[in-house]
Write a structure and sequence with these properties.
112 residues; alpha+beta
Amino acid sequence: MLLPRLRVTEADGDSWDDPSEEQLGLLVDGLSADRRFLVVERHDRPSAWQHFIQAYRDDDGSFRVEFREGGPEAHFEARTPDAEQVRQVVTAWAFDQPGWRERLPWQPWRED
């Protein structure tokens, strides 16, 4: 079975394979109290299931963004109140655009 390069999955289980940059941006823009999170998986890297970025909308309207590029030591998180910043980071990561790492203050992920 050939995997898509990208797969986006929402909290309710709906998923999209290889969305366009515009479609992915709209999905990120749609995060709300009813649609809390989405996960974007990259399947074109070694260890395909270890490469993802996800965004979660908190009760106060701010966002948690996490990315992982390999094992547990390569798992990072950041928080921001800026929905546009979340859209830019998620789409830039998904489409291999430069500069996404510099847009948020990443820290090693830790379980809350």
